[in-house]
Design goal:
single chain, mainly alpha, globular
Length: 160
């Protein structure tokens, strides 16, 4: 890996994610940010994940930690697809396993179930911001960063 060491990348990512001010990034952006830092790529590419937070456009669907991981692995693979025809099926299998592990660890893959709030309404978003759920989301992001480290370093499956 040509970028930041994993511990430093994770610390920087979680600092931006938990920042309540204008430097805040959503969960999908945070996981993508981690992957970009780890690989030495431009962290400003996180803008591409801006609508994935809150379960895709704040609609409570897939957790942004998961969609951010898919984006990070897609970026990893974009430079390698022509070298390895089996890369896409292996990455798909790794992502499926990662989703299964996330669900086993946290009980759901859906943002609304993980947070307990409807983020699509101003009231729900405000209540979420004042709740302990925000801290849980940082746990999801941190967990995903740890799981992505070996995947972004190579092409192996996530650790068991």
């Amino acid at each position: 890996m040509a970028g930041h060491p994993p511990e430093q990348a994770k610390a920087e990512t979680l600092a931006r994610f938990t920042d309540p001010g204008p430097g805040h990034i959503n969960c999908a952006q945070a996981v993508l940010h981690y992957g970009l830092l780890l690989r030495g790529l431009d962290p400003e590419l996180i803008v591409d994940a801006r609508y994935l937070g809150g379960g895709i456009a704040a609609m409570g669907e897939a957790c942004g930690a998961l969609t951010g991981a898919a984006l990070a692995l897609g970026l990893r693979d974009s430079a390698l697809d022509h070298e390895d025809p089996n890369l896409r099926p292996r990455t798909t299998e790794s992502l499926q396993e990662l989703l299964r592990k996330f669900t086993a660890e946290f009980g759901s893959r859906r943002c609304v179930e993980l947070t307990g709030y409807d983020l699509s309404t101003p009231e729900g978003h405000k209540a979420f911001g004042e709740s302990e759920a925000r801290k849980r989301c940082a746990d999801y992001v941190g967990w995903m960063c740890d799981q992505l480290t070996p995947l972004l370093a190579g092409r192996e499956a996530p650790p068991a």
